Amino acid sequence: MMLSELAGRIGASLRGDGSREITGCATLESARPGELSFLSNPRYQGQLRTTRAAAVVVSADYAEDTPEGCATLVAEDPYYAFRQALIALHGFRVQPEVGISPESFIHHTAVVGELCTVRPFAYLAPRSRIGDRTILYPGVYVGKKAVIGNDCVLHPGVCVYDGCVLGDRVVLHANTVVGQDGFGYATAAVGGQEPRHHKIPQVGNAVIHDDVEMGSNCSVDRATVGSTVVGEGTKFSDHVVIGHGAKIGRHNLFVAHVGIAGSTTTGDYVVMGGQVGVAGHLNIGAGVRIAASAKVMTDIPRGESWGGTPAAPLTEAKRIVLNQKRLPDMAAKLKAMEKRLKSLENRSG
Amino acid sequence: MMLSELAGRIGASLRGDGSREITGCATLESARPGELSFLSNPRYQGQLRTTRAAAVVVSADYAEDTPEGCATLVAEDPYYAFRQALIALHGFRVQPEVGISPESFIHHTAVVGELCTVRPFAYLAPRSRIGDRTILYPGVYVGKKAVIGNDCVLHPGVCVYDGCVLGDRVVLHANTVVGQDGFGYATAAVGGQEPRHHKIPQVGNAVIHDDVEMGSNCSVDRATVGSTVVGEGTKFSDHVVIGHGAKIGRHNLFVAHVGIAGSTTTGDYVVMGGQVGVAGHLNIGAGVRIAASAKVMTDIPRGESWGGTPAAPLTEAKRIVLNQKRLPDMAAKLKAMEKRLKSLENRSG
Amino acid sequence: MMLSELAGRIGASLRGDGSREITGCATLESARPGELSFLSNPRYQGQLRTTRAAAVVVSADYAEDTPEGCATLVAEDPYYAFRQALIALHGFRVQPEVGISPESFIHHTAVVGELCTVRPFAYLAPRSRIGDRTILYPGVYVGKKAVIGNDCVLHPGVCVYDGCVLGDRVVLHANTVVGQDGFGYATAAVGGQEPRHHKIPQVGNAVIHDDVEMGSNCSVDRATVGSTVVGEGTKFSDHVVIGHGAKIGRHNLFVAHVGIAGSTTTGDYVVMGGQVGVAGHLNIGAGVRIAASAKVMTDIPRGESWGGTPAAPLTEAKRIVLNQKRLPDMAAKLKAMEKRLKSLENRSG
Fold first, then answer.
1. Predicted pLDDT of residue B324
2. pLDDT at position B13
3. Which among A58, A74, A150, A62 has a CA at the least distance from the CA of A111?
4. C-alpha of B35 from chain center
5. Angle at CA of residue A192, ends A186 and A194, nearest 5°
6. Which of A348, B152, B287, C286 has the fewest CB atoms within 10 Å, measured from its CB?
7. Confidence band for C341, pLDDT divided at 50, 70 and 90
8. Which residues on C lie below 8 Å from B108 (Cβ)?
9. Phi, psi of C201 (to 5 degrees)
10. Contact (CB<8Å) B93/A348
11. Contact B279, B264 (CB under 8 A)
């Protein structure tokens, strides 16, 4: 695609030779002549001067910093503009051809929408339902009475348990599980026996709203009663675990290995870094940002940024870390002061 | 079901109108007229006064706190009583019909007990064996010579490696894996080559005792020699990982993302919160409770409660957290004292 | 096998009766007469004196410490020598018979090497390719144009996404996923709508080099552009997650639940303990060792050992932990000193 055409398509203003052909996208470091790159994270600013890319998408601040011979595409939001370029030049994954494989298993009471793709070894249980244009990769399992919307993509090995509900355009990556039993047991010594953990039937379900995407190997528990909910537009990376009865808001972003315990709720636009843990029965307000690996033990008011273990407002968490580093100095100073105090006491004795 | 009948079934004493019809169970907050709820966690005490439930299961302490028109079922252990009500009103999951699907693969040397259910795309390797009434969901893999007891339920995508053993009534949720190779390598520079990690054959197995239940996406390593063991009645939430040669005791409860390194043992009735990590070759005594996200580096004597990173007895861990918060104050006080000390020294100089 | 023959095979020098028959390998604690054991971790030194093993592999330091009647095999590297004995006596897993199951699905454009094993319900997408002697267990998915080398073993439920590349002798344990979409979204309010997370096409792939082994339920993201890379000879335990665009070096060892965020690189021979987290866009030098559960927020120079949260050089991390334990004492001392200061001030008043 000609650079000038690409600039138009992604809404960027072009500085430099618009007649060159752009063949694909790459990082600043790996780009070869003919390729388009971008700068969004200032950490990579140094690479801007040495890139071999044919053109780079940048914000106005960096418009003068590209090397000679490298065209510049100035965009208000370079990351979003680069995304548009990726779509224009590469597009999204080409999905398998539409059609129902005879090597899949579709129960005769299951309902399959129009133009669906069901690959070999995918399985639709009795009275399950999938909407139009939905794609089930090999090894996908859709449980009894589960309902899956239109334009969903379930990658290989995804399992949706009985009675769970997915909205439209939901994407679940390989081996993600929705609706396994929540972790509910009543520990009791019944009839004079030793205490045992008696299973509580998990009679609720899990409901995943429109435009949710989850990475691979995620797990969303079904609720004991009612529903575990993941709100519209929310995105999980890999290995995220959501406990039973949790209500995750709209447009949340959870990085890998996040764990949310049962009955906790989050507002809209909550962001959690990797390996964050949130205890059960808490309320995390809208717009909250939690730094990677923080462990949250209390409610967090809307809009705040937290971090640390146990988690605290980010400024406090940072001060604790800073003071931890000063601890050896403080201990030494304390010791020296005691000596001076002793000496004063002796003199005044 | 009539409330009076339900009260009898769950062993609770009824206060209020026993003739009303109960249609199902719900949380205090979401219950609609006709539904039964419960109070066990005091955190939700406030919801007791505003619930629209037809009846609530409570302990004697809260017997007077239900709103007008709401009947009360007083039980010694309200959580267990509510569990009994869930079973009476909803029951456990209805499993697929008994029978062997012609679309499964059962090796001719495999042994299948009576009244088993083997769904399409489930796989039984040579000389594997499953007991009576055991259910294999689609995509389940049972390896060579693996032995699975009676009344087990293996959800979709579960994998039991060769030679592993499951007792009776074991439930494994979707995509859980039992018996993959332990993480064993001997790092050595052989024949003057650069050092490499040489794989140690993992010739042991994993043994899961009766009444164990694991959530989705769990992993239990097989032992290098001998067995990795998970004791009777133990329950895992999702994404729990057990290292090779570990011996997990009876009736343990591990919340999601717990990781136990190799050769560690736990006694009976150990409880670990989410994201707890335990180093290898340790002994965790019976009845130990470990708070969520604690990282355990040492043995823990029986009956103790630990938390923190590195983990310490809970009272010590809490004091450390408290003192961390006071650190800025301590630093300020130290500075002020030094000034006063200086002034005294000057005067006495 | 006769002990004297075994000694020769594993390159150990024999002290004691070489004519005895060795039937298998076991730990010091569980070994029965006729079995071989070993001592490598000094933690188990006490068990050396009481073992019932017929013979024990030890280093020269412990050559005199075996009980009477127990032969000794002295080796420079007892762990490696024991590994050789395990191979001699037990061998590695016996794989299923070579052959293509008629119950697998192999697209007519897929290319299968010589002497491959493809079990029932394994799936090869269009234009995928697997090398000679490679083994696909049931439920394995190989995506479009994915390329898998010679002598690989993909255990049940493994998923390799479209366009990903595996070298030779790669082993992936059950339900591990390679090449799912990286966690890339451009958050933008387009056309006056509320902000949404707009998916960035992940048009790169994941490349796994020769001799890599991963445990069960691991996840390696594909890159946005270019490749996520796992270097030759690197080994992962279970539930390891690698973010998009990360470049993992050669001969790394990552224990379970490790998470590496996007675009981070590691040098060769890096070791990370369980539950370690590494933030994105960092460089971890060759030979770095990171203690279990550490959270890494900065680059680490080659050869260093780090630990703690946030991670710091190990000596510093240990000092912080030590000082944390002394905090209550420091607080008490501070209080006492203030009293003494006050008293001095009064006197000198």
1. 85
2. 96
3. A150
4. 28
5. 60
6. A348
7. confident
8. none
9. -55, 135
10. no
11. yes
- Tokens 């096409």 sit at which residue? C201
Question: Residues C180, C197: contact at Cβ < 8 Å?
Answer: no
CA angle C84, C85, C89 (to 5 degrees): 125
Asked whether this complex has an ipTM greater than 0.90, the answer is yes
Nearest by CB to A344, from B239, B275, B345: name it.
Answer: B345
For tokens 């005791």, the residue is B249
Rounded to 5, what percent of chain B is helix, strand, coil?
20, 30, 50
Closest-CA residue in chain C for A254?
C183
Distance CA C242, CA C220 (A): 5
Q: What span, in angstroms and rounded, lies between the C-alpha atoms of A40 and A42?
A: 6
What does the alpha-carbon distance between residue A232 and residue C194 come to, in Å, rounded to a whole number? 12
Could you say which DSSP state residue C194 is in?
Answer: P
Q: Range with the lowest mean pLDDT among A229-243, A328-342, B78-92, C5-19?
A: A328-342
- A78-131 residue pLDDT tens: 999 999 999 999 999 999 999 999 999 999 999 999 999 999 999 999 999 999
Work out the burial of residue C281: count CB atoms within 10 Å of its CB; fewer than 13 is exposed, 13-18 middle, 19 or more buried. Answer: middle
Average pLDDT for A196-220: 98
Buried-exposed string A85-99: b where 16+ CB fall within 10 A, e elsewhere: bbbbbeeebeebeee
Chains that touch C (3 or more CB pairs under 8 A): A, B
> Is C259's CB within 8 Å of A275's CB?
yes
> Can you state the angle between helices C78-89 and C3-10, rounded to 10 degrees?
120
| Catalytic positions of A, written as ranges | 244
A317 in Cβ contact with A308 (< 8 Å):
yes
- pTM of the predicted structure, to 2 decimals: 0.96
Measure the CA–CA gap between C261 and C227, rounded to whole angstroms. Answer: 14
Q: Are A222 and A205 in contact (CB under 8 A)?
A: yes
Write the residue in C87, C235, C275 that is nearest to B259 by C-beta: C275
pLDDT tens digits, A304-324: 999 999 999 999 999 988 888
Q: Find where tokens 């000794």 sit.
A: C72
Does residue A143 surpass a pLDDT of 90? yes
3-class DSSP assignment, residue B137: coil
Given B197, B244, B257, B281, the catalytic residue: B244
Would the pLDDT of B256 be above 70?
A: yes
- The alpha carbon of residue B225 is apart from the nearest alpha carbon of chain C, in Å, by 5
Give dist(CA C87, CA C74) in Å, integer: 18
Please answer yes or no on whether B217 and C175 come within 8 Å at the CB atom: yes
CB contact under 8 A, B183 and C255: yes
